[in-house]
Description:
The protein is an alpha/beta fold. It has 13 helices and 22 strands. The chain has helices at 13-24, 39-44, 46-64, 79-104, 181-192, 212-224, 277-280, 316-331, 358-363, 379-383, 412-425, 429-432, 444-452; strands spanning 2-9, 29-33, 107-110, 112-117, 120-125, 128-139, 143-145, 158-159, 173-177, 196-201, 228-231, 234-239, 245-250, 253-258, 261-264, 268-270, 303-305, 343-345, 350-355, 368-374, 390-396, 402-409. The strands form 5 sheets. Strands 1, 2, 3, 4, 5, 6 and 17 form a 7-stranded mixed sheet that branches. Strands 8-15-9-10-11 form a 5-stranded parallel sheet, with helices on one face. A 5-stranded antiparallel sheet has the order 18-19-22-21-20, with helices on both faces. The longest helix has 26 residues, at 79-104. It is globular. The chain starts with a strand and ends in an 11-residue tail after the last helix.
Amino acid sequence: MTECDFLVIGAGPAGYVCAIRLAQLGKKVIVVERERVGGVCLNWGCIPVKALLHAAQTVRDATEGKRLGLMFLPPEIDLVALYGWKGRIVDRLVRGIEYLFKVNGVELVRGNARFAAPGEVVVESQDGEQRILASQVIIATGSMPTVLSGMEPDGKVILDSNSALRLVELPKHIVIIGAGVIGLEFATLFSRLGVKVTVLELENQVLPGFDTDLAQVVEKALDREGVAFHPGVKVSQIAREPVVTVHYDKDGTDQAVETDKVLVAVGRRALSHELGLDWVGVKTDRRGFIKTDGAYRTTVPNIYAIGDVTEGPLLAHRAMAEGIALAELLAGTRKWKFRAIPSCIYTDPEVAVVGMTEKEAQEKGREVKTSRVPLSAVGRSLTLGRSEGFCKMVVDAKTDKVLGVSIVAPQADVLIAEASVAVELGLTAGELGRVVHPHPTMSELLFEAAEAIHGRAIHIANR
Length: 463
């Protein structure tokens, strides 16, 4: 029997960050992880996908070089070498987290955890069972891909986001079911590696839940690269013989598309079903997400939950922030209540949003003012060969405080950080307009958007 102050189940972004901060604050911490530290984001999501998207962007840059007078031979893609490069990046970061555990005094236990009692967890591994007693238990087990009935991934023909990163050769054609964030990032990746891509989406637009004008810019860009979109369709079955065929319903008629591989990217669900939560009384919703209050407490005293295993945006940075916030709350050092959680999509152009949209603000009874600055107003965009996109800013009409920002542009993932600061700290558009932004950079989009709120933008015609 091992005892500790805090037991963290899961070493993904929420769990490992929480554990390290608790250890920094002088607490005895044990982390249980059944696979590799870093969780989905590091091993099968954020990091490997973005590494491969960088490689795919290199292919795209070479193709676009013709417009600049630069000629390159068609690329030869060694998928094994490419995936090996991606794997080395992941391995390096995994070793980094293990090192941080060591230097901070965090004990890592390998195995599958399940509750035996509210403060007692059994860890099963190849070496047998280990029981751990903890004053506080933090659940940070994350999420897993949603599985459609009859379309369960087999890693060969039907893929999920994990198995798509383990291919040994590129298919000639892949059908992606789902045009959300994961689906479009993989569509971008495979298309640029020379794969024919067809995307099927149940909703009537790509990126369901995002503003239509943002989604349209991304859809048009991918359409020009050869990605075929079929919105408003419902997939009914995947036949494997005599050839792989995806059947879907479009306006009441059955249609089909033949393919080599199918990637199911219809979202994610909580990874909570193996923890024995019912045994100790921790409540979940119908999708398995653990119910918590405003301080990350579950329905059982001294058991907490953070990150993707709880309801909310399934984002690594949200999970990390919750890990720090909970650690400092439990240690009694400070209370961190953050409001602004940005979201980024690594298509080309990139999409990044934070805060409220115009519609959301109006639904909450806010009187708002908006501005929209096209990408072409910023000289730096043209030097990057990009002119389609925009920055939209939403502010409170009475206070001038920035309520939300939406960006579809190159480097949007970096630009949104400044917008997040504005939303989090309650800065006004007027204050942003008094900050000198370097030229020529994409950051001038935010400056122009802030000034446009008051009809003072320089590089667009003010309304």
